[in-house]
């Protein structure tokens, strides 16, 4: 096999992604901080200082720019901006504005995520997404972010992986945030409706801040592949877990596509990967083409809405295997582009080894972080992947 290349389309986003709670540290007013310190099942360790990126964001951006990336997706934390109901912190808004300006100064186009799994503790205590007035409260928060996103921010993600929020709501109602090795629970219908409504309200709020901002949300694509004879079962299983959220993006400026592995579905539902299948540190099947399948499926559902890969990567402690994974993943992205799918960007998960919602063990990062000194060490994969930002070409396997 040899590799040719596919040029990036004009304006193609090339970057890496992070989330506020996973890298900032000491997000003490959030619901997740409370879970981490309350003995909730499935949380092996608390986030604590995380990567201390709240204080070290300049270094993170310096490294990404030096490596060749042109875009950086990062989150702003609702729990910091509105730590108590109706109290908006001018200091935190100014902090996140400095991050936006810092990215631009370094030649990085900022993509800002407004909600990445965490909410203020007070919001969860009043009932979370399904409480009366929750959608309006989220819209009020989005309106308050105008000083952060109002100038110089081209892309805004309203809510990250709403389908995972709704699935987690189902699990939390059972008192446990874990689910089994095969398949996922059915998303809580009330939560699904609420986050879709919150997204639409947030889209309006963003457009009121600046109609020129390109806004959308990001959906976890679990790449359901039907075994022979299970097509109807697969479609019925997939719809509430994924497709209803993709449909909600019709009319948006873009849809964020996020995928890591695949899930096979038989006549009786999801089936385990074979025992001899290679698995990652998250116990997912090693399957680099997942993102290409996700792009094609999303395009079929969402129509002419542009797609951006807002997360894609692998949890591994073997960085050469990370490069292998990205090689296969990018090959599938390039193939989708060549087939006419409107893909506007690719952002890897993650810029840093970070807190993966209960554990630091799954290392997705292009950059290693010492847990004591917080020293950043780019891995070979970081230079390899960042280099495509300079060549403006994607690898494409042939032969």
UniProtKB/TrEMBL annotation:
One Pfam assignment: Glyco_hydro_1
Keywords, comma-separated and alphabetical: Glycosidase, Hydrolase
Coiled-coil blocks: none
InterPro entries, per the entry: GH, Glyco_hydro_1, Glyco_hydro_1_AS
Superkingdom of the source species: Bacteria
Enzyme active site: 311
EC code: 3.2.1.21
Keyword Hydrolase set for record: yes
GO molecular function: hydrolase activity, acting on glycosyl bonds
Gene3D superfamilies according to UniProt: Glycosidases
Family, as annotated: Belongs to the glycosyl hydrolase 1 family.
Name of protein: beta-glucosidase
Organism listed in the record: Streptomyces xiangluensis
